[in-house]
What we know:
Blueprint: H1 4-11, E1 18-26, E2 29-33, E3 39-43, E4 51-55, E5 58-62
Amino acid sequence: MSNLYAEFRRLLPNQPLQVGQVVAVAGGVATIELPGGGRIQARGDATTGQTVFCRDGVIEGEAPDLPIVAITI
């Protein structure tokens, strides 16, 4: 017998990896401004002005300081 929960999880899409600039940090939670102007909050170590990768509310690491181009599809 297979694990029904595991099969269900495979049907759901993975969370996207996002990049943005940290605009505020308070209590281990960073407010991140995305290239499109939206803001999200994520847990993790970051400093104001730093560009970070985040996924599903968690900062995964520092992103390189490169220009960001947003393309609308």
